[in-house]
Design goal:
Elements (H helix, E strand, L loop, with lengths): L11 E2 L5 E8 L6 H10 L6 E5 L4 E6 L9 H5 L5 E4 L2 H42 L3 H22 L1 H12 L6 H20 L7 H24 L2 H7 L5 E6 L2 E6 L8 E4 L8 E6 L2 E4 L1 H4 L5 E3 L4 E2 L4 E4 L2 E7 L5 H16 L5 H26 L4 H14 L3 H20 L2 E3 L4 H7 L2 E4 L1 H5 L5 E2 L7 H11 L5 H7 L12 E3 L3 E6 L2 E6 L10 H6 L5 E6 L2 E8 L6 H10 L3 E5 L4 H11 L3 E3 L4 H13 L4 E4 L6 H6 L2 E5 L4 H6 L2 E3 L5 H36 L5 H19 L8 H4 L20
Parallel strand pairs: 16-23, 16-25, 23-24, 25-26, 26-27
Antiparallel strand pairs: 1-2, 2-4, 2-5, 3-4, 6-7, 6-8, 8-14, 9-12, 9-14, 10-11, 10-13, 15-27, 17-22, 18-19, 19-20, 20-21, 21-22
Helix pairs in contact: 3-4, 3-7, 4-6, 4-7, 5-6, 6-7, 6-12, 7-13, 11-12, 11-13, 11-24, 12-24, 12-25, 13-24, 13-25, 14-24, 16-17, 24-25
């Protein structure tokens, strides 16, 4: 009798009263497995809801009814051929790493054995031309079998185990025809060798196994990258907090915080919980949460979020939400839910495979029975059936999409786009709307001095040299203008004010307006927010530098290119409305919304989806991660937050938006080639299968024909790409830099 398993330690109580648990599931071989797993779990007592993330092989179950027993999930899924265990990140990472090494080992063994057997096959073929001795030929066949059988027994386990599990569960997957074809080809090769026949098929079986293992190893590697999301989010969380009590601050784990606790957050620390500032003032960087680049000044009564960085000043915060209820955790939940929904998208090859396997088996069975009824021997009937299985082996089908994926990925790489998800090309081809984040996406990642030409060159140079000694984000923008100048040897810092030094007996000060004696500058209140201004005073001379982000150089051309392809354009940003409207006016974008929270961006994408639109989301911040994961397709710049890159389908390099246009263009071209390849595979089968059924094609010719079909789809995938992009349209001239916002006034003598 099996011992009872206590899974209470893995159960999470959600804020809405439901319970939740995650399982790691092994045994899934295609996206169609998800529906079977979800139906099996949903039928359990207690009516739980189940969602499978195919990319991470993770099953999330939520329930409210006490009748549901989490410990029974493994027993329900086991008869279907799946092994489930409570999800543990470290255990899953270790097991996933071991599986990756195992697949590579299997592939290496299959490849090494195939090379050796092919050498023997070449020797047999050459000997047949020149008149090889039958005894020598048989010896080479036996040596081939001694190499191939042990190698196939080990290297073929990923397919054999999956096929056996599927058959036990009374279902078919792509591994069933592959396994049957491999087993029969190897078995028939042994029989033919024992009968001293002229041909054996050990080399064909091993080469097919090698190529399929290579595809599986690549797919496994792409899925492993998705696990980085957890690490990226973990880096934004504080592990401990200083809780204020009667005896002063005490360091405690973040999990021990409760609503109403008061905590102390020093300068340079991340906030461990959501809450309200009750004492102190300073500036915080919450761009990863809100997407707004300006450092926010906070004081008593202001709301702050977990994951934000306190840049200066000590803050006392009353905890409003901690543990699994912070905004950061809400973003993680939305991200997981969106990624799970996206993983339900079936690739073209998966959709073809759903009807392919039963047809292959039926054709082979009917061939064998038909020949037996016609009076043929069991040997000849079996040879004909094997020829059908080999000639219809899903090698061409398995290569139809991956071959295009590899070719398109290389073309995208040359254009500065790094593809992360295997089915992203198909989804990029289907988009009809593009939604851009503003900050760091339409604009440059790093803010720049907007009025650099308004200050005298000598005064600006002194200010830039002094800025080199500061770590303040705004000062770094000014320091970038130093262009090789060295910092001053002696610089002092006044906390909360700025920097000062003495140059030839004259004091130079850089920092806040009040610190430099410019608090009463009236143009400041009219033209720019206080957070974007850096004041500088050098004796009697002074200047105000305004820091802001500027549009990427080709943003207008890229937006225009997308519009002319009849794609709808929207801007969804967490920045303030005024800044968003200004950029939208420059780019002539009618649909632009600012001040959006992560959930509101997801809601807008869902609204577009409900209207029948398929949206490409382009964003760079943590607040964009849920919408990047939930969009039909998504892109993120290389300067984006790690979590945004993990959620996106592809990453583009450089300071231009042209790669977004390239991704859409190549995605459409790649989908056409995928469809062409599947059509070629279908036409090949329509011609070859009747010949095999009629007994005209031997297993050897079937293997050659199967290889020929694979070569055909590969050559189609490798054809030169002709892609129209904004860069090609403007080849003769370099795109002009996008217009900055009107330069702000410079106060000086």
């Amino acid at each position: 009798m099996a011992a009872a398993v206590d899974l209470s330690g893995f159960v999470v109580q959600r804020g809405d009263g439901a319970s939740e648990i995650d399982f790691a599931v092994q045994g899934m071989t295609c996206a169609a497995c998800m529906a079977q797993i979800e139906r099996a779990v949903a039928a359990m007592p207690g009516a739980p809801t189940a969602r499978v993330n195919y990319s991470t092989r993770r099953l999330k179950i939520a329930w409210r009814d006490a009748l549901f027993r989490p410990d029974a999930v493994a027993g329900v899924l086991a008869p279907l051929g799946y092994r489930a265990q409570p999800f543990d990140f470290e255990a899953a990472e270790s097991e996933d790493s071991a599986q990756a090494k195992y697949l590579v080992r299997c592939m290496a063994i299959a490849g090494f054995a195939a090379m050796n057997v092919m050498l023997l096959s070449v020797a047999i073929w050459a000997g047949a031309v020149s008149g090889i001795d039958p005894a020598t030929r048989d010896l080479f066949h036996w040596i081939s079998g001694l190499i191939a059988l042990p190698a196939a027994a080990f290297a073929g386990q990923p397919f054999f185990r999956s096929a056996v599990g599927a058959l036990r569960a009374r279902r078919l997957n792509m591994d069933v025809p592959i396994s049957i074809g491999l087993a029969l080809a190897l078995g028939m090769s042994v029989v033919e060798t024992m009968r001293h026949a002229e041909h054996a098929y050990f080399d064909s079986a091993l080469m097919l196994m090698f190529f399929l293992l290579a595809g599986r190893a690549l797919d496994h590697g792409m899925r492993r990258k998705t696990r980085g999301v957890v690490n990226n989010l973990a880096s934004l969380r504080a592990l401990s907090a200083r809780r204020l009590g009667p005896d002063g601050p005490m360091e405690i784990p973040v999990k021990a915080l409760r609503k109403g606790d008061r905590i102390l957050v020093q300068s340079g620390e991340r906030l461990p919980a959501d809450g309200i500032v009750v004492a102190g003032e300073g500036r915080i960087d919450d761009s990863v949460i809100t997407g707004e680049t300006a450092r926010r000044a906070v004081a008593k009564g202001d709301v702050v979020y977990a994951g934000s960085m306190n840049l200066d000043g000590a803050l006392q915060v009353e905890v409003g939400a901690s543990g699994a209820r912070t905004l950061l955790d809400e973003i993680e939940r939305m991200l997981e839910a969106a990624a799970t929904a996206k993983s339900r998208y079936l690739r073209l090859a998966d959709r073809a495979a759903r009807i392919y396997a039963p047809i292959v088996h039926l054709a082979a069975l009917c061939t064998a029975l038909g020949w037996l009824v016609a009076g043929a021997s069991w040997h000849d009937s079996l040879v004909a059936a094997i020829a059908v299985l080999i000639i219809t082996c899903p090698c061409a089908l398995a290569l139809a999409v991956p071959a295009v994926h590899v070719a398109a990925s290389g073309e995208l790489f040359k254009a500065g786009v790094l593809l992360r998800n295997g089915d992203a090309l198909e989804r990029l081809a289907e988009v009809d709307t593009v939604a851009f984040d503003k900050t760091g996406t339409l604009t440059t990642p790093e803010p720049r001095i907007a009025n650099r030409g308004d200050a005298p060159a000598d005064l600006a140079a002194v200010a830039a040299r002094l800025a080199l000694s500061s770590r303040h984000p705004l000062a770094r923008s000014l320091a970038a203008e130093a262009r090789g100048l060295a910092p001053f040897a002696t610089v002092s810092e006044d906390a909360g004010g700025g920097l000062r030094t003495v140059i030839d007996g004259v004091e130079a000060k850089l920092g806040r307006l009040s610190y430099c004696g410019l608090e009463e500058d009236l143009r400041l209140s009219r033209d720019a927010p206080r957070e974007s201004a850096i004041a500088f005073r050098f004796g009697d001379r002074h200047a105000i530098f305004y820091v802001r982000q500027t549009l990427r150089s080709d943003a207008p051309a890229a937006i225009d290119w997308l519009k002319r392809r009849r794609l709808g354009i929207e801007i969804l940003s967490g920045d303030v409305e005024g800044s968003v409207r200004e950029v939208a006016a420059i780019l002539n974008v009618a649909e632009a919304k600012g001040g959006l929270k992560p959930a509101e961006k997801v809601e807008r994408l869902a609204a577009l989806q409900s209207q029948g639109h398929k949206t490409l989301m382009v964003g760079d911040g943590l607040n964009d991660a849920p919408s990047l994961a939930g969009a039909h397709a998504s892109l993120s710049p290389s300067s984006a937050a790690d979590i945004a890159q993990s959620a996106a389908d592809a990453i583009f390099l450089g300071d231009r938006l042209a790669p977004v246009c390239v991704a859409v263009s190549i995605g459409r071209a790649a989908r056409r080639r995928m469809t062409q390849n599947l059509a070629l595979a279908a036409v090949y089968n329509a011609v070859a299968v009747p010949l095999a059924i009629a007994g005209i094609v031997t297993p050897l010719i079937a293997a050659l024909a199967m290889s020929g079909s694979s070569l055909l789809v590969t050559l189609n995938a490798l054809r030169p790409w002709r892609v129209e992009t904004p860069g090609q349209e403007e080849r003769s001239t370099e795109p002009a830099e996008a217009p900055d916002a009107p330069a702000l006034a410079m106060a000086r003598n």
